[in-house]
Amino acid sequence: MSARLERLVELAQTPRITIQVLPFSARSTPGLLGGFVIAQTQGMADTAYIESAGLLGRVTERPEDVSALTFRYEGIRAEAAPQRESVELLKEATQKWMS
What we know:
Elements lengths: L1 H11 L23 E4 L7 E6 L2 E6 L2 H17 L3 H16 L1
Antiparallel strand pairs: 1-2, 2-3
Helix pairs in contact: 1-3
Protein name: DUF5753 domain-containing protein
InterPro entries: DUF5753 (IPR043917)
Pfam families: DUF5753
């Protein structure tokens, strides 16, 4: 586990990757409803992949679906710790796993 956490810390140092930790104290849990990915490609419609417990994932380009997931994503980001604080939390967790 410590190697995985160390890898996340390394990745957080790259300019194109942002890692934010959502603390257990977060008020809402929109990310627990199922995983999702939003793909944005220049010149093409945004696309989302949605997973849900016990069901197969699905892909959607419907603007209302992508918009709802984008809103959910922004809510998660708003409650997550900023990147610098998140990296420190990952470093602390790495030390705990190593000892």
